[in-house]
Design goal:
- The chain is of the alpha/beta class.
- It has 10 helices and 13 strands.
- It binds uridine 5'-triphosphate (UTP).
- Uridine 5'-triphosphate binds near residues 107 and 256.
Length: about 290
């Protein structure tokens, strides 16, 4: 069955970005002039995703508004004859069909996916995006994962290599390489000490989850902190099923942490069609 549905959990608290995220979602922070979450939805649309289920929470209302029409704004812009802006706004609502489900409490990324499951068919595989990983690539990364799923039929997670000194920030895999970019995963280790990491391949917030994985979420027990985590669900699944990791082609910006977000700002600023040249000229003048 073709993958046309995505779940995007955006119910997290965004504590690493406080105070910016006290009253606004981190997913609505912008890279130059576009919210992080729109880059992710555009990636989904380019990969053929038609339906997107956002898992939201109390402070995420502006995400719903962003992907809805804003008739008053369109009306005011029409009065000023700002046709280009109107078209730009209308396109956002057409990127996919959107559904929003509330996660009653922030009980973990696995719990967020569980909240979306009533809207997924029993035998359906879905794409899952975490709401803060922006990836630039020639072919949308989720499409690269979908292609892998279509080739092998197994659930797939995105992987990238990270320097040893940063490895303890991530979930890391152990496994066997079965083609140029695909790993047959044997183990997932959360935030290992650099010397104990089984590889330098870290898990990135892009997944293709099959029914076999999704059906296990309902039975997953919370961890010590009370959260239901996707990493634990995948570790349990590994005891009986095959899980692939794909070293995708693309540049990742983990916009959930401040330094990567700043780096992304600069790089997206430099590439921006209208502002890039001026921004570059300005940066050159800085005495660093
Ligand atoms: P993160 O680990 O980035 O958590 O979640 P967070 O709460 O957003 O941010 P920090 O760590 O406190 O700064 C990964 C993804 O899972 C979602 C987040 O919104 C993010 O897209 N998530 C996490 C939920 O939807 N619900 C949760 O209970 C936890």
């Amino acid at each position: 069955m073709k993958i046309t549905k995505a779940i995007i959990p955006v119910g997290g608290l965004g504590t690493r970005f406080l105070p910016a995220t006290k009253a606004q979602p981190k997913e609505m922070l912008t890279l130059v002039d576009k919210p992080i979450i729109q880059y992710i939805v555009e990636e989904a649309q380019e990969a053929g995703i038609k339906d997107i289920i956002f898992v939201t929470s109390f402070s995420k209302r502006s995400i719903e508004d962003h992907f809805d029409r804003n008739f008053e704004l369109e009306f005011r812009l029409a009065q000023k004859n700002r046709k280009a802006e109107i078209e730009q706004l209308k396109k956002i609502n057409k990127l996919a069909r959107f559904a929003f489900v509330r996660q009653s409490e922030p009980l973990g990324d696995g719990h967020a996916i569980l909240s979306a499951l009533p809207f997924v068919e029993n035998d359906e595989a879905v794409a899952v995006f975490f709401g803060d990983d922006v990836i630039t690539a020639d072919q949308p990364v989720i499409k690269q994962l979908i292609n892998n799923y279509e080739q092998y039929g197994n659930p797939v997670i995105g992987l990238r290599s990270v320097p040893k000194k940063e490895i303890s920030r991530y979930g890391v895999i152990a496994g066997v390489k079965i083609d140029q970019k695909t790993w047959d995963i044997s183990q997932l280790v959360e935030k290992p000490e650099p010397d104990k990491a089984p590889s330098n391949l870290a898990v990135v917030g892009r997944y293709i989850l099959t029914n076999q994985v999704l059906s296990m979420i309902k039975n997953q027990k919370p961890d010590k902190s009370g959260e239901i985590r996707l990493a634990d669900i995948l570790s349990n699944y590994l005891k009986k099923g095959k899980l692939h990791g794909l070293q995708f082609d693309g540049q990742l910006y983990d916009c959930g942490n401040k330094l990567d977000f700043l780096i992304a700002q600069v790089e997206f600023g430099l590439k921006h069609q209208d502002l890039g040249r001026q921004f570059r000229d300005h940066l050159k003048k800085l005495r660093l």
